Amino acid sequence: MKASTREVKSAKIRIKVLNSIISLLGTKPFKTLYVEDICDKSKISKVTFFKYFPQKEDTLLYYYRIWCLENTIRQNKKREEGLQAIKSLFDQMATTYSKHPGLILSLVSYLTSLDRPPAPFPLKPSERTLIFPDEPDILNYELLSVPQMLEKYLLEAVFKGEIKSSSDTKELSHMFLSLLYGSIVTCHLRQTDSLHILLKRNLEYLIKGLNS
Fold it and tell me: Cα–Cα distance between 19 and 38 in angstroms, integer?
């Protein structure tokens, strides 16, 4: 079903806002970015901004959803499963952090400050097709959060015998998520850009501990 002109216009505005934020942030923390700055860069009014993003932090959740979908596409193309899929997920996060450290740090800070997991920010079909125009099956991809992806990959790893821990996959996913977020924060505190190395080493230690 073809998207309406209104839906396409709405999708373009959301994408424009996100691109403006990425352009403005660089290495700066998200909290230093004002809505007025975003609106000026996007050439929209504050009324329009809050129509699509009821609060500024919703733009972080929007970015998070797009990142998760992008990773899902990549994993499906590579047909990776289990621990290899987890390693690729972590490696992609490290690559993204190297490009947009301010955005990723702000996202982790926001996600870890909430009392409960955030409600999924909607990603409409028109937005999927605009962001990923070269993906003919883009509307058919199941959109999972990072915790959901980890739980899926860990279940595969257990079935393949790559992880021998007796813990259930939800508990394991919490461990791996803590390692991911903790490594990002540690890398920032150390003021280094070696997140790839840190994540790889910490992941090896965790897997070794689970299988010992």
Answer: 10
- 77 secondary structure, DSSP code: H
Return the structure tokens found at 145.
């959060």
Q: Please name which of 209, 90, 81 lies closest in space to residue 154, comparing C-alpha atoms.
A: 81
Let me know: does 66 contact 22? Beta carbons within 8 Å.
Answer: no
For residues 89, 92, 98, 103, the Cα torsion angle rounded to the nearest 10 degrees is -70
Whether the CA torsion 68, 70, 73, 75 is positive or negative: it is negative
Q: Provide the whole-model pTM.
A: 0.89
Give which of 77, 66, 67 is closest to 137, Cα–Cα: 77
CA dist list (Å): 8 to 3, 20, 48, 93? 6, 18, 15, 29
Q: What is the pLDDT of residues 90-132, one digit of tens each?
A: 999 999 998 888 889 889 988 888 877 777 777 888 999 999 9
Q: How far apart are CA 188 and CA 14, in angstroms?
A: 29
C-beta pairs of 150-159 under 8 Å, 24+ apart in sequence: 150/86, 150/89, 150/176, 150/177, 153/81, 153/82, 153/83, 153/85, 153/86, 153/89, 154/82, 154/86, 156/81, 156/82, 156/85, 157/81, 157/82, 157/83, 157/86, 159/82
Helix (H) or strand (E) holding 100: none
Buried b (16+ CB within 10 A) or exposed e, 111-129: beeeeeeeeebebeebbbb
